[in-house]
Specification:
It is a single chain. By secondary structure, this protein is α/β, with parallel strands linked by helices. The chain has 3 domains: 2-201, NAD(P)-binding Rossmann-like Domain (Rossmann fold, 3-Layer(aba) Sandwich), CATH 3.40.50; 211-298, Rossmann fold (3-Layer(aba) Sandwich); 301-433, Rossmann fold (3-Layer(aba) Sandwich). It is built from 18 helices and 14 strands. The chain has helices at residues 10-21, 33-40, 51-60, 70-73, 97-109, 126-141, 161-166, 178-188, 203-234, 238-246, 267-280, 286-298, 301-309, 337-347, 360-367, 377-380, 401-407, 422-427; strands at residues 2-6, 25-29, 64-67, 79-82, 114-118, 147-151, 171-174, 198-201, 318-322, 351-355, 372-373, 386-389, 412-415, 431-433. The strands form 3 sheets. Strands 3-2-1-4-5-6 form a 6-stranded parallel β-sheet, sandwiched between helices. Strands 11-10-9-12-13-14 form a 6-stranded parallel β-sheet. It has a two-stranded parallel sheet with strand order 7-8. Strand 13, helix 18 and strand 14 (431-433) form a beta-alpha-beta unit. It is elongated.
Length: 437
């Protein structure tokens, strides 16, 4: 089976590579010639555990190819996945210009049947727009070529994307025809040999499912952050509360961790887009608006705690950050709480020292040399007046507290992810602030 995947960002590259791993002949397409050249040379533009090895293996086997021209490879493939970016527009809604450009190219160059699958996260009604664009292009050419559209939203977690794709708990597919259903079943069957679970539905429902899933997870995070902030004020421990409510099978334990706010490429963008979709439909998403507001406020909670700890005297202080990426096992800094924190620290006149195992280059790309990029976690805290734990990478979980205390000017730790034991840290003679405890 031969397919094309348009877009070699996080979703597109993982999708194409994982399909190639099962023997599918995959051509990945991107308009950026520099990115395609780098991929052909084995350079991977994102960090994702296991991805580089899989790309190199399948490229060497000839199952994974890269090109800048969708038109040139269109005749050879039966299925085209559209995995291009859908960045937020000025009003927060998803910008569909790249999705529709792909549709235009397909309509302008297809010569035989195609199944066009939207893999990008797109608002309800996008597949209909894609269909209309293709039909318009075919009409302009004066030809009548059959095609189908489908929706196949991704549910990948950054840092665990390969496992999520290769062993999915479910695959959601929206289709309009039996032929589209058969093709998608054939394509996904190798991933689900032991637990074949493709959930077929109508296309609008598939498009909505992705947004609803991310909105639910974002809601759980903001809810727990709200509870954590209240715990601090009434003398409760949010960790104990989480264990108590997570034991309820109706609730479960996942996504109940209090912290300094969610970030990344999905939750912030998708919550905003769903709110805008609802506004256009004349329905106010009151819960999600509160979720968004809580999260934006939570990104400032570490800075507020630092102000309290230093009695508001921040100018000239040296502040260390452990962690820059929005979560561990990725170099992604989109909407990362660290960016909000760094901006506030710079405005307050602080000197900033940072360290992250994977996101240092991405941070340089975003903010330049406005902070000191440390060689390791202990270099970051040299003569620091405070340490902010922002991203819970494994290497930060068991620091040498004696070295920490000796290296810092002032032994002050503000833990934005609650990964340390309160009593253990205090026993080391380190002043300790955390979330909801």
């Amino acid at each position: 089976m031969k397919i094309a995947v348009v877009g070699t960002g996080y979703v597109g590259l993982v999708t194409g590579t994982c399909f190639a791993e099962t023997g599918v002949d995959v051509t990945c397409v991107d308009v950026d010639p520099d990115k395609i050249d780098r991929l052909k040379q084995g350079e991977i533009p994102i960090y994702e555990p296991g991805l580089k090895e899989m790309v190199l293996r399948n490229a060497a086997a000839g199952r994974l190819k890269f090109t800048t021209s969708l038109a040139d490879c269109l005749d050879d493939v039966e299925v085209v996945f559209s995995a291009v970016g859908t960045p937020p527009d000025e009003d927060g809604s998803a910008d569909l210009k790249y999705v529709l450009q792909v549709a235009e190219t397909i309509g302008a160059h297809m010569t035989g049947y195609k199944l066009v699958v939207t893999k990008s996260t797109v608002p309800v009604g996008t597949a209909r727009k894609v269909k209309e664009v293709i039909e318009k292009q075919l009409a302009c050419r004066g030809v009548n070529i059959p095609f189908d559209v489908a929706s196949n939203p991704e549910f990948l977690k950054e840092g665990n994307a390969i496992n999520d794709f290769m062993s999915p708990d479910r695959v959601v597919v929206g289709v309009e025809s039996e032929k589209a259903r058969e093709l998608m079943t054939k394509l996904y069957k190798p991933f689900l040999v032991n637990n074949f679970r493709v959930i077929f539905m109508d296309i609008p429902s598939a498009e909505m499912t992705k947004y609803a899933a991310n909105a639910m997870l974002a809601t759980r995070i903001s809810f727990m952050n709200d509870i954590a902030n209240l715990c601090e004020r009434v003398g409760a421990d949010v960790t104990a509360v989480r264990n108590g409510i997570g034991a309820d099978s109706r609730i479960g334990r996942k996504f109940l961790y209090a912290g300094c706010g969610y970030g990344g490429s999905c939750f912030p963008k998708d919550v905003k887009a769903l709110i805008r979709t609802a506004d256009k439909a004349g329905y106010p998403m009151r819960v999600l608006k509160a979720v968004e507001e809580v999260n934006e406020n939570q990104k400032s909670v570490l800075y507020t705690k630092l102000q309290t700890a230093l009695s508001g005297e921040l100018s000239g202080k040296t502040i260390a950050l452990w962690g820059l990426a929005f979560k561990p096992e990725t170099d992604d800094m989109r909407e990362a709480p660290a960016l909000v924190l760094i901006d506030k620290l710079k405005q307050a006149g602080c000197r900033i020292r940072v360290y992250d195992p994977k996101a240092m280059d991405e941070c340089r790309r975003r903010i330049g040399e406005t902070v000191y990029y440390a060689q390791d976690m202990y270099d970051a805290i040299l003569d620091a007046d405070a340490l902010m734990m922002v991203t819970e990478w494994k290497e930060f979980r068991m620091p040498a507290w004696g070295v920490v205390k000796k290296t810092m000017r002032t032994p002050l730790l503000i833990d934005g992810r609650n990964i340390y034991d309160y009593a253990d840290v205090k026993e080391q003679g380190i002043e300790y602030y955390c979330i909801g405890r």
